Amino acid sequence: MAMQDLIKLIQDSPRVAVFTGAGVSTLCGIPDFRGANGMYRDPNAARMFEIDLFDADPAFFYRHADTLVYGNSETRPGPVHLAVKRLQDVGKCQGVITQNIDGLHERAGSDPVYAVHGSAAFHHCRSCGKMKTFEEIVAIRAQAKDGVPRCSCGGVFKPDITFFGEMLPEAAFYGAMRLAQSVDLMLALGSSLTVSPANSIPPLTVHRGGKLVIVNAQPTDYDSMAEETFTDLQEFADAILANF
Predict the structure, then answer these.
(1) For the chain, what are the domain ranges?
(2) 176 and 183 in contact (C-beta within 8 Å)?
(3) Cis before residue 197, ω within 30 degrees of 0?
(4) What CATH number should be reported for the domain whose range is 1-29+77-117+168-244?
(5) In this structure, are residues 77 and 104 in contact, taking their beta carbons and an 8 Å threshold?
(6) CA distances (Å), 49 to each of 63, 73, 147, 180, in order?
(7) Does residue 209 surpass a pLDDT of 90?
(8) Half-sphere exposure of 87 (CA within 13 A, CB side)
(9) Catalytic residue at 117?
(10) CA angle at residue 194 from 50 to 33, to 5 degrees?
(11) DSSP labels for the chain?
(12) Active-site residue among 64, 81, 105, 117?
């Protein structure tokens, strides 16, 4: 299948959903996790989302979180985010499911967005539950000597990102499942499809009789299930923006 064939497949599909991973944000300068230059090449970064470590030493997370979370507050949506928004604008895409925590789909104006691994848009105190916005946390961190945002009760603020050892946000996860089961075509973009249980969502479209197309730089375990696979996200984005 050529890229133009994919465009026709999208045009011929009444209902389309998009599932995205870290690869779609690499075009914005944000590193992915498991790619050639991914964050998990650094064993310290690989531990930054362990909830037990956060509770024992929150400074560890905040020392390593700037690249992925707090250092990209001015990052603009990239070509894939804009292409997905275009598909929504023309009524083709029914919703976005993302594993990403960078908020770039939201900044691009996509809606609905099911952030199945949570978001840094809000933070909650681990002791009293008080909530702060991302912007408020950035300001608090700027005043903290160790960079750890603390609540007036003495507790530590944690972003509403799903750490290893935590449950996925229920509303987002079940909303994503319902969307996947309701569409004719699922576009899985920039995801290795290795992280469970989020990787169980794209196959739901196939199980309900729809089609799956994967665009990812590396092969995935679900390639055999896909109608077709592609490797170039920039080419995909260019094709969408040129044809819709």
Answers:
(1) 1-29+77-117+168-244, 31-74+119-161
(2) no
(3) yes
(4) 3.40.50.1220
(5) yes
(6) 12, 19, 17, 27
(7) yes
(8) 29
(9) yes
(10) 55
(11) --HHHHHHHHHH-SSEEEEE-GGGGGGGT---SSSTT-GGGSHHHHTTTBHHHHHH-HHHHHHH-TTTTGGGTTPPP-HHHHHHHHHHHTT-EEEEEE---S-HHHHHT-SSEEETTEEEEEEEETTT--EEEHHHHHHHHHH-TTS--B-TTS-BEEEEE--BTSPPPHHHHHHHHHHHHH-SEEEEES----STTGGGSHHHHHHTT-EEEEE-SS--TTGGGSSEEE--HHHHHHHHHHH-
(12) 117
* Alpha-carbon torsion (191, 194, 198, 203), positive or negative: positive
Side-chain-side CA neighbours of residue 179 (13 Å) = 26
Which is nearest to 32 in space by CA: 235, 203, 218, 165?
218
State the Cα–Cα distance between residues 140 and 131, nearest whole angstrom. 13
Superfamily of domain 31-74+119-161: SIR2/SIRT2 'Small Domain' (3.30.1600.10)
C-beta separation of 185 from 205 below 8 A: yes
pLDDT tens track for 20-76 = 999 999 998 887 665 555 555 667 767 889 999 999 999 999 988 887 788 777 789
Whole-number Å distance between alpha carbons of 140 and 185: 43
pTM for the model stands at 0.89
What is the number of residues in the chain? 244
Instruction: For residue 212, list its beta bridge partners.
Output: 186
